[in-house]
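User: Batch of two.

Assistant: Item 1 of 2:
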Amino acid sequence: MDEEELKKAERIALKMLVFRDRSEQEVRQKLVREGISASVIEKIVTKLFDYGYLDDQKFAQQLALSLLKSKQWGFIKIGATLKARGLSSELVKKTIYKLKENYSEEETARRIMKRRFPHFKPQGASLKEKQRVVQFFQRRGFSWETIYRVLMI
């Protein structure tokens, strides 16, 4: 194992983590793209976990909460984003479960509805208008059940 390669890998990983938390998979992918050997990557990732710089569970919870509050996404899109960041399906399920315990997707959708579509009345809306609102919520990752309850179609 080359000492210079080890220092380079550590520098790359720490530089990534300075800006924001990352998943283990994101760090691994970056190090592979930089041409770092597998043995060095293992050593660096282990070191980062030992120091507490890498924590996929904490990362998942922070990212999910951030997406819920700032982007006001539904649980489906939050889960897909966590999965895309390289987190395990099990961790994604646990994170979404914890979110559901503390936050209501329906309340989030209702707040968006009031702000984004203040004059929308499902009873008097045309099919095209209803489709537009439903598709808006689907793109944001809200479940059909939540959309239905909010719009009472």
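Item 2 of 2:
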Amino acid sequence: MKLILLKDKLKEVMYTIDRVCSKKGDLNILNFFHIKTANNKIIITATDLEISYQAEISGRIEKEGEILLPAKQFTQLLDSFYEDEITLEKSKNTVLIRGESSLSSLVGLMEEEYPVVSKMEKENYFEIDNEIIEDILSKMFLNLKTSDLFKPE
């Protein structure tokens, strides 16, 4: 696998991935995210078995493949790069992360070990406008706010 990605786009996705990946110590595999190429698309997936997140990001695919990478370490490495373009190149179970003048590597896992994330069907979801959600939450906040009138003595 060899990918060339814009660092800013990757950081946006990794911010969410880092929050989804489990902080629990019981299943180490949940601290990893799955990156793969399929049909000229770069797909990044993470799950904690309760919440799943999948994103497609744009980039140049020079060689197809897939690997599991530790989310926290990858995000920290990504933050240390100053270049705008990042190259990810898989060699066995290691990914080389390259910038114009930076180089780092990260050991990944076999992709067969990752939990299966169910595919979201278009007919099983709905969308709500952000303004409607904000309006509903602001109205709920007024009802949930504790009153100063009913203080226990």
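Helices lie at 7-20, 71-80, 130-144.
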